[in-house]
Structure formats: structure tokens, C-alpha cells
Design brief:
Layout: E1 6-11, E2 14-19, H1 30-43, E3 51-56, E4 61-63, H2 68-71, H3 76-94, E5 100-104, E6 107-109, H4 111-118, E7 121-125, E8 129-131, H5 145-153, H6 155-164, E9 167-169, H7 170-175, E10 181-183, H8 188-200, H9 204-218, H10 222-236, H11 240-250
Helix pairs in contact: 1-3, 3-4, 4-5, 5-6, 9-10
The chain binds hexanoyl-coenzyme A.
Hexanoyl-coenzyme A binds at residues 24-25, 27, 64-69, 82-83, 86, 107, 109-111, 133-134, 137, 141-143.
Length: 260
Amino acid sequence: MNFTNLLIDVADGVALVTINRPAALNALNIDVLNDLTAAFSSLQENAAVACVILTGSGTKAFVAGADIAAMQPLNAVEAAHFARLGHALMSLIESCPKPVIAAVNGFALGGGCELAMACDMRIAAENARFGQPEVNLGVIPGFGGTLRLSRLIGKGRAKELIFTGDMVSAQEAFRIGLANKVVAAEDLLAEAQSMAAKIAAKGPVAVRFAKEAIDSGLEMDLDRAGRFEADLFGLCFATEDQKEGMQAFLDKRQAKFTGR
Ligand code: HXC
């Protein structure tokens, strides 16, 4: 896969996707959105990939937002189209059958924070900064920030961040549940790779079902979510991985999962 704005490296079951537009702090224009959409569409079908890491190039930014220069002249119809492209990408990442880890290596602002939130987990470098500063530009979050920030950190805190446009540090993001952990900048990729390798060693069908149960379950009432979880639990017993995982425990050996 060759993309103008992305670097992609697949090794040992883990795909590292790097948004590579450092001169604009990896800002998201239509080309970057299209590249990411094509990349994730392909990676989700790639049997050699069990887990994806998404990061930004350079040491300053994960993604500093949607591209302000590209958005400034848009009319209302064009702006809505741009927002919908972003929404489709965020949904694609969120529903990716493989876990996606955001390695947040600097500014994650506006569309960058929204992109990080569409990922399953966020590991932040100490220098990372998160925020939804759209109100500074006379607009609101448009790639799902109002939805995902409130679900992740609660309505009150989401409103505070979105209404003030304030940025928060990596440590504050960790405290409020926006980041899963904070590590030294030089350890960021190793930490993300280590988490990805741990996940890649598990039964891929079980990991995919767990993701589905959590994400879909959160949008259902508890009763339906419970039945959905029970059905997915039952489906695990149609896989070779369930037989192997449980037999390996009984044999006191390491399980060898095949994803079947
Ligand atoms: C386009 C951007 C950009 C962006 C930075 N750049 N952010 N270009 N869109 N979102 C460019 C700058 O213009 C500059 O280009 C270069 O990257 C370096 O940025 P500087 O501002 O010089 O760096 P610094 O002074 O260190 O400040 C870093 C920063 C600041 C705090 C991150 O760049 C900033 O505030 N950026 C905008 C953040 C933001 O408002 N994001 C939300 C966007 S709205 P030149 O050519 O001058 O070197 C959004 C909506 C999403 O995301 C929903 C859409 C539907």
C-alpha cells in the first residue's frame, strides 16, 4: 500500500500507520481522510494484521486538527460533506474488527482528538496535548467530538472542554479517562507495540467479539446488551480457538490461536 500522506509498516501481526504531513502538523485534509479510509478498509481485510497502531509523524503532533486552510473557504454544503467524510472514517476505525491503538505523540486537537477517540485505546506521550478548540474558529467539532468525548469522559467534562476550547495535558487526559496511559515520548512506540503484540497473541475472534460487545453494548439497554453478550459468548464455542484456548489451559501449555 502506497499513500501520499501515510506511512504503513506491517510486521509481526501489527500494522503501524503514520500520518505523514509534518509541515502542517499532520492536519487532516480531504486527501488525508481518503488515504486513511483506503488504508483502514484494506487493513481490516488483511489476515496478516491483528492489531493497528495509529500515530503522527514528527515529535510535535499526532494530528493538529482538520486542515483550517482547506476548510476556510468552504460553503455550508461543502463543509457538511467534509464532516461526513470524517464521520465515515471515524466509524470505519471504530468498527474495525482489529483493535486500533492511538499512539498520541503530540497535539491531538479538533479532528485529531476526534481521530484518537475513534481508536480503541489512547497511549499518550508526556508532551501530548488534547483538546477540541473548534469554538476558537467559530465552529463546533464535526468529526464526532461531541458524541465521543461525552461518552468517554462524561457530559460535564466534555462540555467544559468543548465550550472553552482549552487544551489538556497528557496527565490530565489520563486523569479524566481520555488517555489510557502516559509514557515518556521516547517510549511511546515501544509501549504501543508491546500492547499490540500482547493483543495480537490472543484469539482474534474473541478480541473482535469483545470489541463488538463493548461498543454495541454501550448503545443498547442493559437487558439487550446482556443477551447480545451471551450470544457472542456462545458463538465463541463455534471456533477452534475456544477449543484450543481451553485445552491449552487444561494441558498447562501456551495456546496457539489460529483465528478459526
Ligand atoms: C492547517 C495547521 C493546523 C491545522 C497547524 N497547522 N495546525 N494547518 N490546519 N489544523 C500548520 C500551521 O499553519 C503552520 O504552518 C504549521 O502547521 C506549524 O504550526 P504552528 O502554528 O506554527 O505551530 P505552533 O506555534 O507550535 O502551534 C501549534 C498549535 C497550532 C498550537 C497546534 O498550530 C494550532 O493552534 N493549530 C490549530 C489547532 C486547531 O485549531 N485545531 C482544530 C481545527 S478545526 P506554516 O505554513 O505557517 O508553517 C477541526 C474541526 C474538525 O479540527 C471537524 C471538521 C468537520
